[in-house]
Amino acid sequence: MSNMKQLSLHSITAVILLVGMMMFAGLLFFLVMYFVRPGLIEARTYPGAIAQIGVNNISGSTTQRVLTVHTPTQLLATTTCASRTISTVGGDITLSFYDGAPTLGQYNGHLQLSSTTQTYDSDQFGCGKLKVFAISTTTVTVTETQ
């Protein structure tokens, strides 16, 4: 009987030790990934969608408009840019970034929520005709960098 108790005690000790080592390894992995490679854990962003330190962008133009509700409006028609930063105040909008895109509407286009600022990199979104559709009364400010 004492051999069974001793074997059982050794088994329980081994399991507890193994679980503890696995938890320590998991914690160590998380800490290394968080502090050494933070991009692996944090939310992903589009390449170029955030300003990079040391990269000089020259502001080409800034346009501000109060949009008519439920009316597609063309804001820009340039063909070259580095990025476009769009800020909204008041309501949601949908966007199209190129000529020939489907007709904009409340459910058609790239959605940008109210009271947000978003940078659209030219490598991903291009620099075609920028059209916008206001779902509700909205003021839009667009800054295009070259």
Description:
- The protein is of the alpha+beta class and about 150 residues long.
- The protein has two domains: about 1-40; about 60-145, Sandwich (Jelly Rolls).
- It contains two helices and eight strands.
- The chain has helices at about 1-35, 120-125, and strands spanning about 60-65, 75, 85-90, 95, 110, 115-120, 130-135, 140-145.
- Strands 1-8-3-6 form a four-stranded antiparallel sheet. The protein has a four-stranded antiparallel sheet with strand order 2-7-4-5, with no helix packed on it.
- The protein is elongated.
- The termini are far apart.
- The model is unreliable at about 40-55 (pLDDT under 50).
Order of helices and strands: HEEEEEEHEE
Number of domains: 2
Beta strand %: 25-35%
Radius of gyration: 27 Å
Count the DSSP helices: 2
First CA to last CA: what distance?
A: 83 Å
Shape: elongated
CATH topology call of the largest domain: Jelly Rolls
The average pLDDT is 77
CATH class descriptor name of the largest domain = Mainly Beta
What is the count of β-strands? 8
Main β-sheet, spatial strand arrangement = 1-8-3-6
- CATH architectural designation of the largest domain: Sandwich
Low-confidence stretches: 40-54
CATH homologous superfamily designation of the largest domain:
Jelly Rolls
Percent of residues in helices comes to 25-40%
Question: What does the largest sheet look like?
Answer: 4 strands, antiparallel
